[in-house]
Amino acid sequence: MRFTIKPVAMALTMALSATAAAADKEPSVAELMEMIKAQQAMIEKQNQMIEQLSEKVDKVEVETVANTQAVEATVEAIETASTGEGTAWDRISFGGYGELHYNNLDGSGGASDKKEIDFHRFVLFTGYEFTDNLRFFSELELEHSLSGDDKPGEVELEQAYIEYDFNENYSAKTGLFLLPIGLLNETHEPPTFYGVERNNVEKNIIPTTWWEAGAGVTGKYDNGISWGSYVHSGLKTSADSSYKIRSGRQKVAEASAEDLAYTANIKYSGVPGLELGAAVQYQGDVTQGEDPDAGSATLIEVHGTYQYEQFGLRTLVAIWDLDGSGPKAIGADEQYGFYVEPSWRFNDSFGVFARYSEWDNQAGDDNDSESEYAQYDFGVNWWLHPQVVIKADYQIQDNESGKEQDGVNLGMGYHF
């Protein structure tokens, strides 16, 4: 933007002449030229002032445009955030959990003592939200603090899947994921359950932590009912391990897929404090075709939890049925377990529990061995924070074989 003033010498001359005539005095040429020079100097100064003013106006215009663009960018950022979009960092999630255990158990009846301290699990979660209805989630775990040749621990990929929401009621997932069976398999962060060690039923029968690779669809409704249906990699048991279920986990590490497995679950949580759930799994050949004396395997699991004010109750039953003459010959055609766990939460910081659990991986009619296990647990949880807990419990075993470990367990756990 520019302002200009044209020379006005002619007009000035006429004005001066008129003034001089009025005064009956004719100015000299020299005087007239001096007056014109003075006026021109004044006009030049005015032009300089106008030039400076014009530059300031231009600067204001530039700043106004910049401010407008900044406001528009801010509005766009707010709108982007409200729609779930944004920078990559905004869409990343991070978390994890861990637990330290101390076991001081006395062995009897041929069982060994256990005096051990172990950082049992160190786990990191990472996730990424591509859009509001498409996301990725993963879980990486280090067990027993140290892994490698001749070391006690393992590094394991326990989850890595993509989840897509068709709408607010129906979703699908594919990848490596935890199976929705039991109470602990999907939710096993230390502050969420009582006891230093995970219960034996959901360790030896379910078996937690249990993950597979495959795909599935889920549904959830406002009335509290949810369900899932999945096809995925399966177990691979063998006669060498007496067809025990826990030994059959392949952990999706170059896992044999001669025979896939199918899982379905349903859950009801429509009443505050109550959850009722059930799951069933079927696999056509639990040995992945490597044992002609074994066949299909079917799991049925039901569970319930109830929290009413300070009182809590958890219970679970799980039963496996294995076909084939091999499992039947050693009683492994039926494997079962159940537990009952009442608890009392005094306040946000302290709670106590008792648990009775019973399990048997060779409960079939043809089993002559003393394979049934039973355990009583009593203990306390001290929550320093809803996500940080100190635990202590005492266990008493009552096993058919007479080999028992009784004693104290102490633990610390966290999740974030």
Automatic annotation (TrEMBL):
Signal peptide, first to last residue: 1-22
Top-level division of the source organism's lineage: Bacteria
Keywords recorded for this protein, A-Z: Coiled coil, Signal
Coiled coil ranges: 29-63
Protein name per UniProt: Porin
Species annotation: Neiella holothuriorum
Organism placement in taxonomy: Bacteria, Pseudomonadati, Pseudomonadota, Gammaproteobacteria, Alteromonadales
